[in-house]
């Protein structure tokens, strides 16, 4: 006769002390989700509803938005929270479904690396974007560059 273990019986040893990263990841997902809802709907409202709507979105609109420190912080916060939120969600899926430890490790490293690279590149674009580069052909520059 075989014994069936009780549901949810831990298969690994119990942790004693230290930081409970799973708990803090769970809390982060809930908190960042709420903040992301505000950031995303604010972003969509400003880009698609306010002003002339979607037909106003062009290079000059984006350039003007990214030259304002308020929108740089807004978009940067949205970028960081969304990428970390998504990376944490993918980490959870890998931990739940990848049974081979080596495959799990490779997948987790790939998720961490791609999240870090995308955060770095996105932050670089947001903080260094210049819609009016020096020496550019004036005919190719956006309308916001006139008089600069």
UniProtKB/TrEMBL annotation:
Residues of the signal peptide: none
Give the matching SUPFAM superfamilies: Fumarate reductase respiratory complex transmembrane subunits (SSF81343)
Gene3D superfamilies linked to this entry: Fumarate reductase/succinate dehydrogenase, transmembrane subunit
UniProt keywords (A-Z) are: Heme, Iron, Membrane, Metal-binding, Transmembrane, Transmembrane helix
Subcellular location, principal: membrane
Subcellular localization, as worded in the UniProt entry: Membrane
Q: Which residues cross the membrane?
A: 27-50, 70-94, 106-129
Protein origin, superkingdom: Bacteria
**InterPro entries recorded:** SQR/QFR_C/D, SuccDH_FuR_B_TM-su
Please state what the protein is called: Succinate dehydrogenase, hydrophobic membrane anchor protein
Q: Which organism is it from?
A: Rhodoglobus aureus
């Amino acid at each position: 006769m075989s014994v069936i273990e009780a549901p949810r019986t831990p298969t690994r040893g119990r942790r004693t002390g230290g930081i409970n990263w799973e708990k803090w990841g769970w809390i982060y997902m809930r908190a960042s989700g709420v903040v992301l809802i505000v950031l995303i709907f604010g972003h969509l409202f400003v880009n698609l509803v306010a002003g002339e709507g979607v037909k106003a979105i062009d290079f000059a609109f984006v350039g003007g938005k990214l030259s304002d420190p308020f929108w740089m912080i807004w978009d940067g916060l949205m970028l960081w929270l969304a990428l970390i939120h998504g990376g944490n969600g993918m980490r959870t899926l890998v931990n739940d479904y990848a049974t081979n430890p080596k495959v799990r490790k490779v997948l987790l490293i790939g998720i961490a690396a791609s999240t870090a690279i995308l955060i770095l590149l996105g932050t670089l674009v947001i903080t260094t974007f210049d819609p009016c580069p020096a020496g550019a052909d004036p005919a190719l520059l956006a309308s916001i560059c006139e008089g600069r």
